[in-house]
Specification:
Elements: E1 6-8, H1 11-16, E2 22-25, E3 37-43, E4 46-48, H2 60-65, H3 70-82, E5 87-88, E6 94-96, H4 99-111, H5 117-124, E7 127-131, E8 139-145, E9 160-167, H6 168-172, E10 175-179, E11 185-187, H7 190-205, E12 208-219, H8 225-234, H9 237-240, E13 244-253, H10 260-269, E14 273-277, H11 282-292, H12 302-307, E15 311-313, H13 314-321, H14 330-336, E16 342-344, H15 348-359, E17 368-372, H16 378-383, E18 386-390, H17 395-400, E19 403-405, H18 410-452, H19 459-477, H20 484-487, H21 501-525, H22 530-546, H23 564-583, H24 585-588, H25 595-606, H26 608-627
Parallel strand pairs: 2-14, 2-17, 10-13, 14-16, 15-16, 17-18, 18-19
Antiparallel strand pairs: 1-19, 3-4, 3-13, 5-6, 7-8, 8-9, 9-12, 10-11, 12-13
Helix pairs in contact: 3-4, 3-5, 7-11, 18-19, 18-21, 19-22, 19-23, 21-22, 21-26, 22-23, 22-25
Length: about 625
């Protein structure tokens, strides 16, 4: 799995991944490329964009110069530069920071035709206080001083200013004014507020994340730096974020990963339910979910998805599934989660509640996988049956996970499920082979001893069968790599139900066939004739081929040529057996066989393969129909 960029921290999770029935995944970085860029903007009443990747001759600076005053551009640029947690080195290069904030700072540099504008602003404008982003507030606030405010006419006479950046619906509700293109202010009326809300909703329907930037002048009088710091210490976040003036809205686009839609389709075909849990708005989340196939294309919009309970916000989710005491009501939860596909504006507690509720579901047995990258995802990652942390995530998320996805995409989750199912399937192959061989050995040995007063097999022959044939066969059966067919099978209903009805049918028919052939050969040649031992071992080798498929797939030779180790081990078993039969002598109590005796033994062994084809094609289908199910494995 490491060759596929998956670091397995908990070994048992590699097998558990094969039982996954539900995946709770993030949007950013998993389904999308996490290559965010400013695609369009509304700045002081002026619409700019959308700009595409092909707009090489049109920059943000050229698009806004003719429409906006320099005061507005500078106000927005300083506000965004200081309302950020991105860290720079001494040369102005980014050390660390979220992709969305880096995209906004790149937008500021492009707006000012310079690569180091943000770095210069942060050097000359002291940041007094930062109220960090939280999942509950959906915004962050910074308070800073404009030290050159008195002498710089473009920056007016402001000395202390608070800037707020956050989700559109949250920040818009806090604004009382809006900035005009010339830098003057205007009252934000109810019709204007409704028009802006509709505009931002249209952007979100285009799968864009909309962030608003607003500010408030905390202190207009010139004060000392010490007084400014004292003022900020006393300033509460509610005061800093009240009566704001709306400056701009920026639409960030994050392209969908090329493979995301195909991966979601593969997961759904494999019986794995994929749900998106994101902090973005409901409209943006629904748009992305439709593009990657989590929601069907015929879902008209977020309103239709919401009406059918396919998508909802974290607030509504809590209202539906939590009691008045804040505890999860499992009965209400089981009525909600099966249909839910998208949970938007979700908090870390919502993600944990969803994970815990699905695991404890009384409607059906569920095995939950969670994909996360942040420290806030740690509780959900620990609670999940399998926790996947992105390689670009925090150390806390990685420590809480079972598997680290080094490649940061949803393909790795599907690969983990494939390998998990392959491990489970290889165990089933081993069980079918061992039970068939051991039951046949016991029946033939015991039956022969009772009927003829002598066992058909000597002790050294049985030792060879158990130590060499069974060991090499088990190793060979464990070397088949996972194929796409493994993914498209239904997930195992329960790991404790290791032996499926189809496996029981395969074991019973093969044991019956081997015992029938051995009875005929013993009666025809005697219990101690070498042909009896020869046919028995060859039938085990044929059954080894049969056990490559424990499902209802008929072709046991499919893919055998691509498994060099299986071919080599099977060939080694056959070669050892030929040597023992032809040259074993008194040690193995065998005598050389004629070619026609070899043909007879080979015919008995070869008959096991078409028998399995008949059983899985006709008998298994009839059995499944009688049981009222479409599949029996």
């Amino acid at each position: 799995m490491l060759t596929l960029d998956m670091l397995v921290r908990v070994l048992s999770s590699a097998e558990t991944a094969g039982e996954v029935t539900t995946v709770l995944t993030d949007k950013t970085g998993t389904l999308t490329r996490n290559e965010q860029r400013a695609r369009r903007a509304w700045i002081a009443g002026v619409d700019v964009g959308p700009l595409s990747d092909d707009d090489t001759d049109r920059t943000w600076a050229s698009a806004t110069t003719a429409s906006l005053s320099s005061r507005v551009s500078k106000l927005l640029s300083v506000a965004l530069s200081l309302n950020s947690t991105v860290q720079f080195d001494n040369q102005g290069r980014v050390i660390r920071g979220s992709k969305s904030e880096i995209a906004l700072l790149r937008f500021v540099n492009e707006l000012n035709d310079g690569e180091d504008f943000v770095h210069l602003v942060r050097k000359h404008f002291p940041l007094l206080r930062l109220y960090p982003f939280s999942a509950e507030r959906k915004r962050m606030c910074s308070v800073y001083t404009l030290s050159d405010a008195v002498e710089d006419a473009e920056m007016s006479d402001v000395v202390v200013r608070a800037c707020v950046k956050g989700a559109s619906q949250d920040v818009l509700a806090l604004c009382a004014e809006t900035l005009n293109p010339d830098g003057s202010r205007a009252v934000l009326t109810t019709p204007m507020r409704a028009a802006l809300a509709d505009k931002f909703l249209d952007w979100q329907r285009d799968a864009e994340r909309v962030l608003l930037v607003a500010y408030r002048d905390v202190e207009m009088d010139v004060v000392s730096s010490r007084d400014a710091r004292d003022m900020c210490q006393r300033l509460s976040v509610m005061d800093a974020e009240s009566n704001l003036c709306l400056v701009a809205a920026i639409g960030l686009s994050d392209p969908l990963r090329v493979e995301a839609r195909a991966c979601v389709a593969r997961a759904r075909a494999a019986g794995v339910d994929v749900k998106m849990v994101t902090g973005d708005s409901l409209t943006t989340a629904v748009a992305v979910a439709k593009r990657c196939g989590i929601l069907d294309e015929d879902t008209d919009d977020d309103s239709a998805a919401h009406a059918h309970a396919l998508a909802m916000t974290g607030e509504e989710f809590r209202a539906r599934v939590l009691t008045e005491d804040g505890e999860l009501d499992q009965g209400k939860f089981d009525a909600v989660w099966p249909k839910l596909r998208v949970l938007a504006r979700a908090s870390p507690k919502d993600k944990y509640a969803l994970t815990d509720g699905i695991r404890n579901s009384t409607s059906s047995r569920q095995v939950v996988a969670v994909v996360g990258d942040g420290s806030n995802d740690a509780p959900a990652l620990r609670r999940a049956n399998v926790g996947f942390a992105l390689g670009s995530g925090t150390d806390m998320a990685k420590e809480a996970s079972d598997i680290v996805i080094l490649r940061d995409d949803f393909t790795s989750v599907i690969d983990a499920i494939r390998y998990g199912r392959n491990v489970f399937q290889n165990i089933q192959k081993f069980v079918v082979f061992q039970l068939t061989a051991n039951i046949s050995t016991c029946v033939v040995s015991t039956g022969g001893a009772l009927a003829y007063a002598v066992s058909p097999f000597s002790a050294i022959q049985l030792l060879f069968v158990n130590l060499v044939i069974d060991s090499l066969a088990s190793l060979a059966l464990a070397t088949d790599a996972p194929t796409e067919d493994d993914v498209l099978r239904d997930a195992p209903a329960d790991a404790s139900a290791l032996i499926t009805p189809n496996m029981k049918l395969q074991i019973a028919t093969q044991v019956a066939y081997q015992c029938t052939c051995m009875t005929w050969l013993i009666n025809a040649y005697g219990p101690t004739d070498t042909i009896v031992y020869n046919a028995f071992v060859l039938m085990q080798l044929a059954n080894q081929l049969n056990c490559r498929k424990v499902s209802t797939e008929a072709n046991v030779f499919k893919g055998v040529g691509s498994n060099a180790l299986f071919v080599a081990l099977t060939s080694a078993e056959l070669a050892l057996h030929i040597v023992i039969v032809q040259r074993g002598g008194d040690v193995f109590q065998t005598s050389p066989l004629e070619w026609h005796e070899w043909l007879l033994a080979l015919a008995c062994a070869a008959g096991a393969i078409p028998l399995r084809v008949f059983v899985v094609t006709f008998v298994a289908s009839f059995w499944a129909s009688a049981r009222g199910t479409s599949r029996i494995f």
